[in-house]
Every structure is written in C-alpha cells, then in structure tokens.
Design goal:
The chain is an alpha/beta fold. The chain has one domain (5-184): Rossmann fold (3-Layer(aba) Sandwich), CATH 3.40.50. 37% of the residues lie in helices and 16% in strands. It has six helices and seven strands. It has helices spanning 23-38, 51-62, 93-103, 114-128, 146-157, 178-184; strands at residues 10-14, 42-45, 67-72, 86-90, 106-109, 136-139, 170-172. Strands 4-3-2-1-5-6-7 form a seven-stranded parallel β-sheet, sandwiched between helices. Helix 1 runs parallel beside helix 2. The two termini are 22 Å apart. 40% of the residues are buried. The chain binds adenosine monophosphate. The site of adenosine monophosphate has 18 residues, from helix 3 and helix 4.
C-alpha cells in the first residue's frame, strides 16, 4: 500500500497526448503543472512533450517544480520526450505503469483518450483489489468523465462491482481544487476493503 495522504510528495497525472484537444483542457493541464510546483509536489507523468501531458510538464518545470517523466523507448520520438525534465526510459508500457505506481502517492486524471482510459481502469481495478488506497482525483470539466462514471455505476447496478467502489475517487470541476483534494486524501469510507464484497 502507498504512503498516507498527509505524506503526499509525488503525484502522477494521467491525461491526453493530443495537441488537438480543446485549448481549455491544455490550459487546465498547464495550470495544474503550476499548482503542483507551487505545492512542492513532484509531477510523475508519461514523459512526452505532446498534448495535455506536455503542457502540464512544461508548466511544472518552468514554475520550478520537480518533474519525472517515464517513457517507453519506442514512444520517445512519437510522444516527443521532453529534454528539459528528468526522464526515465523503460522497455514496455507495463513497466511504465508499474513505475508510475512505485513513484507516486496520489493520482490526478485530466481529460484524455484511450491511453488515459487504460491507465484509469488499471489504477481503479488495483483499488478494487485493495492493492492501494491512494487519493485519486478526477478533473471533470464539462462533465467530461460522466459517461465513464455511468459505466462504472452500470456495473454496480448489475452487482458486478461493489457499491463502495464508487467512493474510491474524488471529482472536482475546477483546477484549483485538485491539489486540496489530493491533500484531503480519499473520501470518508474510501478505505473500505473492496475485494470480497459485491
Ligand atoms: P491518450 O489518452 O490516448 O492520448 O494516451 C495518453 C497516454 O497514455 C500516452 O502517453 C500513451 O502513451 C499512454 N498509454 C496508452 N496506452 C497505454 C498503455 N496500455 N499503458 C500505458 N500507457 C498507455
């Protein structure tokens, strides 16, 4: 299990790699990078210079924050790994996600595509297995993540997922609420064991 919320030092951000995303989302990613730097929280992320991930990392770095990028070697060119930040090159996508998990005490999710979805599902499925109780904060502008939450609820309604699973993350609508939500830690009751109950 990871560190307690009050010892939060290092935050992994999952977000889209597309430069064609809504400019408001790209601005929000940069705002988050700056607020992590101001809070002295290290940013752990996918290592690329593109899309929301690049916007977040460049802003964190330029604001004096500590940044660790973790990128598989075959994506170094495609995701334009940032030279300006410390970058760890790994062999596989699986290793990248394992390293995210080892290096982070909290997770933030910004709008993203299929890669972000894959990362979210693994993180929350590991929570479902009680492999961690780390704070997970979704930034949800324009209710971006509502269809995903509805799908999770659908699996609860079908008695395939325990109801307590729906308390395993926090949702915020404003970027400035992300860091306070991380420090607040998981919601009350979110420490419930989920492995056995459906
Ligand atoms: P996307 O949301 O599709 O723009 O992808 C966001 C990030 O997730 C990019 O850095 C992708 O390389 C990464 N990603 C995509 N698929 C995976 C995967 N299976 N495991 C780990 N990272 C992934």
């Amino acid at each position: 299990m990871g560190a307690a919320p009050n010892s939060l030092t290092s935050v992994c951000v999952f977000c889209g790699s597309s430069d064609a995303a809504d400019p408001a989302y790209l601005r929000a990613a940069a705002d988050l990078g700056r607020s992590l730097a101001e809070a002295k929280l290290r940013l752990v992320y996918g290592g690329g210079g593109v899309g929301l991930m690049g916007a977040c990392a460049v802003a964190a770095h330029e604001a004096g924050g500590d940044v660790l990028g973790i990128i598989p070697h075959f994506l170094q060119g495609k995701e334009r790994a940032l030279d300006m930040v410390k970058t760890e090159v790994v062999a596989t996508m699986h290793e990248r996600k394992q390293r995210f998990f080892e290096e982070s005490d909290g997770f933030v999710i910004l709008p993203g595509g299929i890669g972000t979805l894959e990362e979210i599902v693994e993180l929350l499925s590991w929570r479902r297995l009680d492999l961690h109780h780390l704070p997970v904060v979704f930034y949800n502008p324009d209710n971006f993540w509502a269809p995903l939450f509805a799908l999770f609820q659908h699996t609860v309604d079908a008695k395939l997922t325990p109801p307590a699973f729906m308390g395993a993350w926090t949702v915020v609508d404003r970027v400035e609420d992300i860091v306070p939500a991380l420090f607040a830690g998981p919601k009350a009751g979110a420490d419930k064991l989920l492995t056995s109950i459906v």
